[in-house]
Amino acid sequence: MSGAAGIAATEALGITEPLPRSAASVGLLGYTERAIVTAILSGMESSVAEDLPALYRAVLDRVAELEATGDRIEARRIRAEAIRIYSRAWNQRAQRRLQSLLRRTYVRSVEVKGARGAARGFSTTV
Q1: Is the per-residue pLDDT at 82 higher than 90?
Q2: Reported pTM
Q3: Is there a domain that residue 17 lies in?
Q4: Which residue has the higher pLDDT, 58 or 10?
Q5: Which residue range forms the structural domain that includes residue 33?
Q6: Cβ distance 28 to 62 under 8 Å?
Q7: 41-76 burial string, b = 16+ CB within 10 Å, else e?
Q8: What radius of gyration, in Å, describes the C-alpha atoms of the chain?
C-alpha cells in the first residue's frame, strides 16, 4: 500500500495527526504494520475473522504508546474495553467497536501531545 493510500485511510477515519517516524511502518511493539491497519480501516474486502486480530493488535500497540507517554489511566480503560470486545463474538459490531477504539487512541494521543506542548509553552498549531 502506498503512503498516499495509508494517509487517505487514516484521514477517512478523521485521523489527521501523522504517526511518528518510528511508528510509521511498524507498530510500537513491532507487531502491527501500518499497511495492515490502514488496509483494515480503509474497508478492504476481507472477513471479520481475518481483520479482528490485526485490529486488536493495533489497538494494543496504541495503548502501549499511550502508556509510554504517561497516560496510563486512559490506556487501562481502552485496553479493558478492547479485551471485552475481542473476547466476545467476532462479528461486524465487534469490528466497528475496535475501529472506534483505535480512532479514540489516535485522538487521545493528539490531546496528550497538545497538553504537553501547552504545558511547556509551545503551540500545537501552525
Answers
A1: yes
A2: 0.57
A3: yes
A4: 58
A5: 3-119
A6: yes
A7: beeeeeeeeebbebbbbbbbbbbbbbbeeebeebbe
A8: 15
